[in-house]
Write a structure and sequence with these properties.
alpha+beta, 97 residues
Length: 97
């Protein structure tokens, strides 16, 4: 099954050329926040924690910047967007203007 949509950030598909890597890193910071002073392990841990509690404002900013229309959020992430699907861990929401 395919959603036929692009994704903003993918932790497993990291580009290897300079320009692609820089764009990927900008998208990571837009979605998760910037944690430059932390070790890679601690930074990743903090980014994942930040995404669990991502604000509606940050979601809207990412949506506006990248043309995002849907988001996959953790089940416990508070938001007022219409939920289209959920399971025990995640929910799919539609981002509206």
């Amino acid at each position: 099954m395919s959603a036929e949509r692009a994704i903003v950030v993918d932790w497993k598909a990291i580009p290897f050329h300079d320009e692609g890597l820089l764009g990927w890193w900008r998208r990571i910071n837009d979605c998760y926040g910037n944690f430059p002073e932390l070790s890679p392990r601690e930074g990743k841990k903090q980014m994942f924690a930040a995404y669990r509690h991502i604000s509606t404002g940050r979601i809207n900013a990412v949506a506006e910047k990248y043309g995002v229309t849907f988001a996959v959020l953790h089940q416990e992430t508070p938001c007022s967007f219409p939920m289209l699907y959920k399971d025990d861990y995640f929910k799919l929401v539609r981002i509206i203007d």
